[in-house]
Amino acid sequence: MKPSEVYFFDERKHFDLLQGLERLWEEAGLASLIGSGDRVAVKVHMGELGNVTHVRPPFVAKIVELVRKAGGKPFVTDTTTIYPGGRFTASAYLETAAFNGFTQQTVGAPIIIADGEKGFTGERFPVRRRIEGCGLGEVEVASALLEADMVLVVSHAKGHLLSGFGGALKNLAMGCTTKRTKAKQHEAHGVVLDSSKCSRCLECVKACPYQALEETPEGPPKRLASKCFYCLTCLFNCPSDAYKLERRGKERFQVALAHAATAVAEALPKIAYISFIHNVTLYCDCAAAGAPILEDVGFLASLDPVAIDKASLDLIDQAGVRGRIGVKPPDILGKLNGTSSLRHVETAYRLGLGSLEYRLVEVKLREERKVLEEEG
Questions:
Q1: Widest CA span of the chain, in angstroms?
Q2: Does the structure show a pLDDT above 80 at 376?
Q3: Which residues, in sequence order, are CB contacts of 345 under 8 Å at separation 6+?
Q4: 126-132: long-range contacts at Cβ-Cβ below 8 A with a sequence spacing of 24 or more?
Q5: Mean per-residue pLDDT for 239-251?
Q6: Is the torsion defined by CA of 313, 315, 320, 326 positive or negative?
Q7: What pTM did the predictor assign?
Q8: Which of 167, 232, 326, 367 has its CA 20 to 30 A from that of 209?
Q9: What is the mean pLDDT of the chain?
Q10: Residue 109: its pLDDT value, please?
Q11: Would you state the pLDDT for residue 203?
């Protein structure tokens, strides 16, 4: 397979980041993908309540501006979560988005939660090819995304507890689907209860948003598999650490993630990808993820989600992490999260979604390019 082009603006070499984002847009030729009057979905994670390291509203506003200049009609969008929190429903998400600085006024476009108020509004599409024993048979893509003529998948490159790394592929698989499909992907990692650790405090029963845990007369709570969405609220709320993932659960989760991403990409119209490698945290934007663990690197753009994720991982490895003695490349983020981030990236490649081989094209600002040419 021919290497894919991944355009890269190195923010460590520049001051005007918004101008750099515009230059990246131009060099990658993204405007040429937008027809006059096209509805363009700017798919972005607007941050959980308490998270401060997501992609900043000014960058999203700049992308909206560039879409308008190209003749498109943009809207900013994301989907609800399967776990309870600030994005569990569309109305809650809009409140959280506003708290985080995302409003129609700040980004310059309507904000639409693509899977509806409760997170179940979507259309089903088959998973056409399955490998690695993946049991995912279909995906349910959020309705508002299917109404767009083009989708710009805007991702924040960062760590993730289950997949090691979250970028464009995870944004497709989780960010573009309804609660049902999110649950089916999470089902792959499973969750088990060690009854010997259970104190019967029932905190898990109280916390479960789906009433999938039932108190029993004497023993530990009983899980009702038909109701469970595998959101891991039980695991995070158990004071006794009695819950854990199934053995090799993270690997199986990543395999499901890659299949979902591939099926979503097949279902959507034209897609382009922009990824931000800054404020890189150990965990994802679905939580208060702590301080960044490496210096800001820059922005990437590509038409290939596999290549842009592989390039992101490589650039993160090259930057190194702060204060993490003994953790070395490759895949620093995966190692820190107890898995291999490359599992879902390589699986997506095997499914034909993109290429692991890429050509990194560095983008420079015009003024600096002119200076370099004159000095040369």
A1: 81
A2: no
A3: 165, 169, 258, 306, 309, 310, 313, 356
A4: 126/263, 127/259, 127/260, 127/262, 127/263, 128/263, 128/266, 129/262, 129/351, 129/352, 130/259, 131/255, 131/347, 131/350, 131/351, 132/255, 132/347
A5: 96
A6: positive
A7: 0.95
A8: 167
A9: 95
A10: 98
A11: 97
Distance CA 79, CA 57 (A): 17
Q: Across the strands, what pairs with 6?
A: 302, 360
Q: What is the CATH number of domain 191-244?
A: 3.30.70.20
Percent of the chain with pLDDT over 90: 92
Determine contact, residues 73/64, Cβ cutoff 8 Å: no
Q: What is the mean pLDDT of residues 344-359?
A: 98
Mean pLDDT of 259-282: 97
| Fold agreement between 4-183+252-375 and 191-244 | no
Asked if residue 330 lies in contact with residue 317, where contact means CB atoms within 8 angstroms, the answer is yes
H helices of 118-174, where? Answer: 143-146, 168-173
Domain ranges in the chain are: 4-183+252-375, 191-244
Q: Is 291 exposed, middle or buried (0-12, 13-18, 19+ CB in 10 A)?
A: exposed
| pLDDT exceeds cutoff 70 at 1 | no
280 CB-near residues (< 8 Å, 6+ apart) = 157, 158, 159, 292, 293, 294, 296, 297, 316, 333
